[in-house]
Design a protein that fits this description.
The chain has helices at about 1-20, 20-60, 65-95; strands at about 105, 115. The chain has two domains: about 1-95, no CATH class; about 100-129, no CATH class. By secondary structure, it is mainly alpha-helical. Helix 2 packs antiparallel against helix 3. Bound molecules: zinc ion (ZN). Zinc ion (ZN) binds near residues 112 and 121. Zinc ion binds near residues 110, 121 and 126.
């Protein structure tokens, strides 16, 4: 049983190690989106708790002020985390900077890039085709 799990973990780790930069971003984004969804349901639960407290208060029951503060604080913390995650997702979605455009020219086998129309290489003197 644990042997099977070990093997599975090894293959998962291998898979993660071989992904390219681009798919790493996709994985990262998927993770962040999953966390956002988790936060949404956590928030729903927290609001529900707060609602129970508010109902108790409205119907004349005694509520603990600290409990109320804690419930509000938890919601604020969840919302702050969601905002950070949304910011991270935006960063991941920003397009990669484009590489510098290569100057137009005739590349020689020596590596020198000559002006278009050159007959001979200015780097090594070989005749250009
Ligand atoms: Zn050359």
């Amino acid at each position: 049983m644990s042997d099977f799990l070990d093997k599975m973990l090894v293959s998962i780790n291998k898979g993660v190690n071989t992904v390219s930069e681009g798919s790493k971003n996709i994985l990262e984004k998927a993770k962040l989106n999953t966390r956002l969804k988790e936060l949404d349901s956590e928030k729903a639960q927290l609001f529900q708790n707060l609602g129970v407290l508010a109902y108790k208060l409205q119907s004349g029951g005694q509520i603990n002020v600290e409990e109320f503060d804690l419930a509000c604080g938890n919601i604020a913390a969840a919302e702050a985390e969601a905002a950070r995650i949304e910011e991270d997702i935006k960063k991941l979605e920003r397009p990669e900077p484009q590489p510098e455009p290569q100057p137009d020219g005739v590349a020689c086998s020596c590596g020198y890039v000559n002006k278009v129309g050159s007959k001979f290489c200015a780097g090594c003197g070989r005749k250009l085709i």
